[in-house]
Every structure is written in structure tokens, then in C-alpha cells.
Amino acid sequence: MVTTLLEAPAKTGQKKTGLFVPDYVFVEPNALNYPLGQELYQRLQAEGIPLQMTTSHNQVRGIPGETEVEKYRNAKRTLVIGVRKTLKFETSKPSAEYAIPLATGCAAHCHYCYLNTNIGSKPYVRVYVNTDEILAQAKTYIEERPGEITRFEAACTSDPVSIEHLTGNLKRAIEFMGEQEYGRLRFVTKFHHVDSLLDAKHNKHTRFRFSMNADYVIKNFEPGTSSFAQRIEAAGKVAKAGYPLGFILAPLYWFDGWEEGYTDLLERLRNQLVPEALADLTFELIQHRFTKIAKNLILQRYPKTKLAMNEEERKYKWGKYGKGKYVYPDVQAKALQAHLEREIARLFPKAKIEYFT
Question: Where are the bilayer-spanning segments (predicted)?
């Protein structure tokens, strides 16, 4: 029943489509008690991908690699099929009231990603097959706030679009929220694989957001993601399908020529977006930040990165639990904010800027 994990299979469809195809798969035994777990196990086994059982999606051992960097890169090519046991949702301010846990981890290699810290020792991609239980818990949270809109963020710990072709969980969540009078779903992606979501019965209860950035940032710090052109084309499809659309400009990054770079980004967005996208459009602005732990992990995993992380050039911003992060000094942060807000107002006068942080 179980294939011993020895070596990765030859890559087939991934290069042609850009879709995530894991090199290794680990399965929790309990996951096979759910239809999605059974389906994934049988499908991936039929594709010849090495399969191995694991006692828990939090305790995966046996990912190959002679160095820490090799183990990390192989982990990013590893899929773990598990059951989400903790059904207490984390808060997700300012984006939403709660984070809905459909998956954890991402196969992309964005140098700056906060997942480097959040799931530092477990960078593999985890998908959860007890989707009905997760959605039932979401309904409980909605019912605890009678008469109020309750928003759920589905991309706090993963990029759900990047694995939708495997699980279908995002479409299930979209259609579930479409049926909830007071439930709303939000997620963000750097991928263009949206076709399976275009016919979902969303009832305009899901805001579909794309992460966008200046060319300098995409080219230098976002390996393994869809291109700007692919993302903007996908955004047009999403808008035509009736979804409320949004863009997260993050991380806002200070580089030589940043003003021209971000103006160019916004002008290309304006010129290439379909008219349907302009009716209900939002922007979220997030400056680059890092922690000391994140910096050490990033430099270990991406030793050639150009990402600037000099603590002496930053301001320390305290957060929850006595921990903090390094952000831009007020002068630089306010310059970034003012420039982006001015250009968005010029090019997208009807759009709403939800926050700058």
C-alpha cells in the first residue's frame, strides 16, 4: 500500500502547466477516513509519486537532502495530506475577523515571506481533508456574531489557488460562503490558475485578491510564482466572473527607482484591467518587514538574496506578546504610503484603500 520514499519521480505536467506537482507525498492514516483523503491518495499513487505514511502532519520525517538548503527545497516540493485537528481559528486583522485553515505552506520561493518564520521548521505544503468540519466551524463563528458580517481570510498560511487543482477546497469554501447571509471569504494569490473557480456560485461573498508588486520585486524576490502578465489576465477573468476584486501591494519595498517602479505597476494595472474590475476594487498596502529569526532563515535558505534587511536602517515596531518586527522608519514609510495613495487616487478614483500597515 505504501511506497517507500526514495527518489522523486520524473517531472511531467508541471513544466507545461506551472501547476504544483509534488515530488513526495506523506499521508496521515486518519486522512484516509475522509473522501478527499482517499481521492488524493489514489490519484497521486496512480501518478507514480512516492507515498509514505506519517503519524502526524506536524511530525514529518524522511524528506531527503544532504544539506539544510537541500532539505528545505525538497520540503517545498512535498505535499502532506492531513486532518486539521485544531478547529479554533486564529484572528486575522486587519484583513478579516478570522483565518480559515484550508492549508498550510506554499511551494513558491518568495524570499520575504513571513511563512519563513511562521512555519519555519515545517516548510512543506499541508492540505486538510476534513473540509466539512472546517466549514462547520466557520458557520459557528458566523452565528456567534448575529446580524454582523464575519470575514474569513483563506490565505494567511498558504496560497490556496496554488493547490486548488489538487483539493478543490477553495471552491467548496467559496460556495459555502455564498450561501451564508453574513459570511464572507477573502484570499490572495500570486498564481493565475483560476479557471476552476470561475463558475463557482460565489454570490459576490468572496473577494478575490491578487498580490502585485513592482517589476524589481517580482523578478528578484518571487521565484516560483506567476508573472505579472499572468496575474493581470487572471484578474480580468475573475472580474468578468462577478467576483469583487482586490489587489494587495506587498511588500512595499524601498529600492532605487521605487517611485517610478510603483507608478509603472499601477499604470499597467489601470491600462490592462477589464472595465468590470473597476466597479468594486480594493487595495491593501503592506510595507516590507522582517524579524531577526526571519532574517536568519532567509539568509540560510536564499544566501544570494538581494533582500535588504539591515536592522540599523529600520524602525523596531512592537507587536503582540512582547515581540516585534523591523519596518521602515517613519519618513520612508510615510513616503511609500503617500506615493501609493496619491497614484491609486489618480488612476483608480473609485477604488477603496483598506489600510496601510
Answer: none
